[in-house]
Sequence to fold (236 residues):
Amino acid sequence: MALTPVVDPSGQGADTYRWPDKPSQTAFPVARPGYPFIAAAAFVTFVFALLELAWLALPAMAAAFAICMFFRDPDRVVTTEEKAVVCPADGRVIVCETVEQTGHYEGRCRKISIFMSVLNVHVNRIPFSGTVRRVSYRPGGFVRADKDRASGSNEQNAVFLETADGQRISFVQVAGTVARRIICGLQANDKVVKGQRFGMICFGSRVDLYLPESAAIAVAVGDRVTAGTTIMGYLQ
Fold:
């Protein structure tokens, strides 16, 4: 998928950012996996309203609104900086460290973990352009996603990516206490571009990003980050 340049009427910096996906034609884009949840909540609200049960219809309407907010899927533009690695998920950085050994990367690497609360956008995005070499799903538990042991014990889906110059990156969707459904649309040998949507985790979760040890990290623990927009670091 080719990156589409962002139109800049001023002519200044027109190629600084690009659309990784075709922009939505709606004012409030919603992720497709949310359609059944939203339809069910709207139907329940409609039934309660027909029965004139306002004390039930109002909470049901509030729940439908909350579900719409959870599954919101705003368009994002990404940087065209060649070596920049962009964030795969909205949320807060809870881990930023060098790891000696992990099942998600061969050798020493830099690990950055992003915790997504139920208030965050949960659509995940590709951190760097390249070729998907492997996608590995592993069942597991559902401890709180902001706990260190969640990376090793929780249900998760790992994507292993190789860049055009042969560098390796991996990113792992990790389920949490409430999140019980991981969605990933990638397969081995897929060609992907930086900032492209590739899946989501329903109702609170975590994404772990593994970069080469030589990568220059641009975030720290506690930082609020945005998928596709925030630069996490730079490959060397």
Notes: The chain has two domains: 32-70, 83-234. The CA atoms of residues 166 and 174 lie 26 Å apart.
